[in-house]
Design a protein that fits this description.
- The protein has 272 residues and is mainly alpha-helical.
- It contains eleven helices and two strands.
- It has one domain.
- A hairpin with a 2-residue loop joins strand 1 and strand 2.
- Helix 1 packs antiparallel against helix 2, helix 2 runs antiparallel to helix 3 and helix 8 packs antiparallel against helix 9.
- The longest helix has 29 residues.
- The mean pLDDT is 83.
- It is found in: Cell membrane; Membrane.
- Pfam families: TauE.
Length: 272
């Protein structure tokens, strides 16, 4: 058992991460995974977690936190009738299959490779947010299978490699095919459920028995972080929401895009 002082410092650092993630998640109106992973990576570094497992632990812990938040959000949106249930039903197999593939990749790649993957996807997301145009369209309705199934699998794969709930990727997909942004956001909550639950078990399996993990970790999931972050993010997110209402939508898109590019640059710098 680690010294009590070390455990207190560990918990305090993670609580601070929860405050930062909660405010930023509220500000940018996303589930928080894209915020949590880079924040976790920095905090776990300050706590001297082995670099070989630090990125994996950040991604797995983020997915564990997304499970209850995505479930709560999905049920609330479903009650309002805002979710595209037909799309979700068509993705019940493709999205988890993509997540399972991501778990296999995570079990075999290095921390550097996982950081590079996160950074590359973050650049694409950041550029999309910076140069997004409301009139961009690829079609008037969502494509049928097998294209739809393939998109679901890719969203599951990329999201599980990044430790996110798939909101940014699914919002992009649905709005490019003419769906209202509110329906896209609501449906993304359900996509988060399809990603986070198999992702949690996948990262538990991928990191099982790995050396160098911090106290109270099972596989690539740290339960201290999970227990601390969920209530803290829910508590402080309204602060970010208040900031968001002081800015217009385009300013938020630019802010989030710049944040993702900054995170990507930080991860690429760590590879040098």
């Amino acid at each position: 058992m680690p010294p009590v002082g070390e455990l207190i410092w560990f918990a305090a650092a993670l609580a601070g991460a929860g405050v930062v993630a909660g405010v930023l998640a509220g500000l940018f109106g996303i589930g928080g995974g894209a915020i949590l992973v880079p924040v976790f990576y920095q905090v776990f570094g300050l706590l001297e977690v082995d670099d070989a497992v630090r990125m994996h632990l950040s991604v797995g812990t983020s997915l564990a936190i997304i499970v209850p938040t995505s479930l709560r959000s999905f049920l609330a949106h479903k009650k309002r009738g805002a979710v595209d249930m037909a799309l979700l039903k068509s993705w019940i197999l493709p999205v988890p299959l993509g997540v399972m593939a991501a778990s296999l990749i995570a079990a075999s790649v290095s921390s550097s490779a996982l950081r590079a993957i996160f950074a590359l996807i973050a650049i694409l997301v950041g550029l999309r947010m910076l140069f997004n145009k409301a009139h961009w369209r690829l079609g008037t309705d969502l494509p049928a299978n097998p294209v739809r199934a393939g998109v679901g699998a890719v969203i599951g794969l990329l999201s599980a490699l990044m430790g996110i709930g798939g909101g940014v990727l699914n919002n992009t997909f649905m709005t490019l095919y003419g769906r209202p942004v509110h329906q896209a956001v609501a449906t993304s909550a359900g996509v988060g459920v399809l990603i986070s639950i198999p992702g949690l078990f996948g990262y538990l399996w991928a990191g099982w028995g790995e050396p160098g993990l911090p106290p109270f970790s099972t596989g690539y999931v740290n339960w201290v972080a999970v227990a601390l972050i969920i209530p803290i993010t829910l508590l402080v997110a309204p602060l970010g929401v208040r900031l968001a209402h002081a800015l217009d939508k385009r300013q938020l898109e630019i802010g989030f895009g710049l944040f993702m590019l900054f995170v990507a640059a930080r991860f690429f710098y760590s590879l040098s």
